[in-house]
Specification:
The protein is an alpha/beta fold. The chain has 15 helices and 17 strands. The protein binds pyridoxal-5'-phosphate (PLP). Pyridoxal-5'-phosphate binds next to helix 6.
């Protein structure tokens, strides 16, 4: 469609990888205007854990709209918000023995991160924040300062201050515990690192290339924070809401962060919604200090409650995510063993896994062929070298297998051609033109 070239900004990104006009979606399927079916292994970058237009939530949402329930509510107490809070408290927080208050921020992940950083700085009176290599926390200035990616950082146009970077788990090699380095920095008054207000961390780095921290590392990090009275913020925007096989991605590590950010799949339906969870003792906000017009997306409260009621009242769903996660790792390991020639590797946990192709060009050739074959799948990482498997958690076993089969055949095709032909062969130019 010409209109997108004519008047939509050059800033478009996903649209470039999947140059179709989409007009319908259901479960793990997206459909383009011409009726072509695509298996969605991108899932709104982790926003559609329960699939597209999930009937269970749609029903509740339609009934709510039909009854003229509040749509926009600023931060007013509404019935829908109250019911969400009750459900979240009873079914998510209490069973996990987590004591948090809930701050409703503007409905984007980056705004939740802004709020978390602001609160940490204000209550500690310290400016510095520790963030990790390859971390991604959003693109508004405060969150962007904590984000590693130079492409995103470069767009800021101002200096991004107040954050010190420390190597993430595995960054310096398998056997180096980078929390020991962090601790050393904190103990050395000449390390050049100002005592931070907080550490912000993803338990699995999504945009940074599906780097999964070990549970030991997370526990060590939590211990270092406690020892030095630094707040621990877990940014669970992408890894949370079930993606790794438990509601919060940090549960299995047995840590209890001081602050947690949630967004992406929180509403369940793809509606914008973000919260910050705060240990009650440090909820020292003054009324209205952090605000935002769209903190009361009541449609999202309705669908978020429905998602928790349906999927998180017992362990059935979490168990199915773990089971599918095991299947995914088994398949990805065998793909890597078969075609990776010792270069490729797998990464991640739960249904948050990827194949590191080392080379970004190779990864994008693979995802382009997969798209031609009907699977939408994206790359992430510093050089977009990691193929990121992020299908809805509700995907059927059949479609999970089919999607991975298609990616596998794309890997096979690309690796076969790569090993036979010199660089810059024209086969891929043809493929590219067909997709474009
Ligand atoms: C997506 C993401 C964000 C930013 O969320 P937006 O809604 O895009 O602003 C922040 N942190 C993590 C870990 C994310 O994956």
């Amino acid at each position: 469609m010409k209109i997108f070239d004519e008047i939509e900004s050059e800033v478009q990104s996903y649209a470039r990888s999947f140059p179709r006009v989409f007009n319908r979606a259901k479960g793990e399927y997206l459909y383009s205007e011409d009726g072509t079916e695509y298996l969605d292994f991108l899932a709104g970058a982790g926003t559609l854990n329960y699939g597209h237009n999930n009937d269970l939530f749609k029903e509740k949402l339609l009934a709510y709209i039909e009854s003229d329930g509040i749509t926009h509510g600023l931060d007013l107490h509404t019935k829908a918000k109250g019911e969400f809070l009750e459900t979240f408290n009873e079914k998510i927080l209490k069973p996990r023995d987590l004591d948090y208050v809930v701050q409703f921020t503007g409905p984007t992940g980056t705004n939740a991160v802004e709020a978390a950083l602001k609160l940490a700085r204000n209550i500690t009176g310290r400016e510095n924040i520790i963030a990790f290599t390859n971390g991604f926390h959003g693109v508004s200035l405060g969150a962007l300062a904590a984000t590693g990616n130079s492409h995103h950082r470069g767009a800021a146009g101002v200096s991004l201050n107040g954050v010190s970077r420390v190597p993430y788990d595995g960054y310096l090699g398998e056997n180096i515990d980078t929390t020991a380095y962090l601790e050393k920095l904190l103990m050395d008054s000449s390390s050049g690192i100002d005592t931070p207000a907080a550490v912000i961390v993803e338990t699995v780095q999504g945009e940074g290339g599906i780097n999964a921290a070990s549970f030991d590392w997370l526990r060590n990090l939590s211990a270092v924070c406690k020892k030095h009275e630094i707040l621990l913020i877990v940014d669970d925007i992408q890894a949370g809401c079930g993606r790794t096989g438990s509601y919060f991605s940090f549960e299995e590590a047995g840590i209890k962060p001081d602050i947690v950010t949630l967004s992406k799949s929180l509403s369940g339906y793809g509606l914008p919604f973000a919260v910050v969870l705060i240990r009650p003792e440090i909820d020292l906000w003054k009324p209205g200090e952090h605000n935002g017009t769209f903190r009361g997306n009541n449609f999202a409260f309705v669908t978020a409650k429905a998602a928790i009621d349906h999927y998180w009242s017992d362990n059935t769903f979490a168990d199915s995510v773990k089971r599918k996660g095991n299947y995914i790792s088994q398949r990805l390991n065998s793909i890597v063993a078969e075609y990776g020639e010792g270069n490729f590797s797998t990464r991640g946990r739960g249904m948050f896994q990827g194949i590191n192709c080392v080379n970004g060009e190779l990864a994008s050739k693979i995802t382009r062929i997969a798209f031609q074959q009907g699977v939408m799948i994206e790359t992430s990482g510093a050089d977009d070298q990691v193929i990121k498997f992020l299908c809805p958690l509700t995907i059927s076993d059949e479609n999970l297998k089919r999607g991975i089969d298609i990616v596998e055949s794309a890997v096979k095709a690309v690796c076969a051609i790569e090993s036979e032909m010199p660089e810059d062969n024209c086969y891929f130019d043809d493929v590219y033109h067909e997709v474009g």
